Amino acid sequence: MPWWLMQRTEMKRRRLGKRINVLLKDMIRQQYAKHKTHGLRHDQSRSILSLSLQDTDTLSRELVDETCDQIKMFLLAGHDTTSITLGWIFHWLSRTPRTAIAVRSELDNLLGHEADPEVVRARLMSSDGPDLVRRMSYISAVVKETLRLHPPAATARYTKHGTGFTVRTPAGEKHCLDGMITHNCEGLIQRDPAIYGDSAHYFKPERWLNDDNSNIPASAWRPFERGPRSCIGQEFAMIEIRVVIAVIVRRFDFVKVGLGELAFDAKNRPILGEGGIYAAKSLLYSVSRESLGCKLGHFESEPHTDDGPYRRDRLMPDQ
C-alpha cells in the first residue's frame, strides 16, 4: 500500500528509524574516540565497528552515516535469514539422528564435554575462539546443506533494453531477456540431480566433506548469491549460526510438532526411513503461494522426473 494510506504506520517507522540512527551514531563516535585515545589495532578488537574504523583518520559526517547504514544491515537485515536457517537446522537435527550425534561429538572434541552456555561462551571468547569456530567442519557442512535445501533468500536482476542479453537453455534454445527481471530460483538450482545426484533432495551434510565435493561447481550453491552483489554479511551469518549451534545443541533435543512431525511404530519408536532420516506423519511444505510456485516443497523420497528446468508437476513429499 502507498504510504499516504497508512500514515500512522509510516510516521511510527520514521520515528523509530531516527531513534535507531541516534543510538548507533552515538556508539560510532564513542568507539572512534576509544580508538583514538587507546590506539586500538584491528587485532585487539574483532567487532565489526572496530574493524570498520581501524584505518580512519577523520570521522566525517558522511563516514558516520555510511557506517551507521552498514551496522543496521548487519543487525537487522540478516536477522530473519539467520533465524530461518537455524529453525531448519534444528528440524533436521530432530529427523537425522546420525547428524545430531556427529554435531554433538564434534562440539565435545572441540569444546570439552561441559555444555553450560557460560563455559562455551568463555571458550569461544578466548584467544582460541576463532580457531575453534573455523574447525567446526561438520557443523559447517550441516549449515551448508541446510542452506542448499532451504535457501532463505533470493535475488533478481534487471536487464536494460538494448543490451542484447541472451541466455541459452539446455536444449539449445536462445531467449533474449532485454527489459526483463530475471529471478535465480536457488530452490531448483541447488537441487539439480545432474550436480547432486540421486541424493539431491535428501539432507546429506557429508556431501560437503567427501572428495565428491570437488565435483560440485561453485555456481551450484548460491544461498548468498554470487559475484559483486553477493551478500555482504554471509561470513558473519555463518559464524553466527555456528556459535548458536555450539551454545545450545548439546543442551536440548528438538522435536517437530504439527506439519512434518515424526511418525512412530507400534512400540512408539521413530521410524528410520531412506537416507537415515526419520519418517514423518505429514508433508512439510511452505504455505506461501510464491514459494509453492517456485520451490514446490522440500523433499522427495524417490527419483523424480519433470518436463523442464523450471517446472514441477507435483509437490515433493517430505521424506
From TrEMBL:
Its cofactor is heme. Heme binds at C231. InterPro entries: Cyt_P450, Cyt_P450_E_grp-I, Cyt_P450_sf, Cytochrome_P450_monoxygenase. It comes from Anthostomella pinea. Residues 298-319 are annotated as: Disordered. The keyword Metal-binding applies. This is Uu.00g027160.m01.CDS01. GO terms for molecular function: heme binding; iron ion binding; monooxygenase activity; oxidoreductase activity, acting on paired donors, with incorporation or reduction of molecular oxygen. It holds the Pfam family p450. Keywords: Heme, Iron, Metal-binding. Gene3D superfamilies: Cytochrome P450 (1.10.630.10).
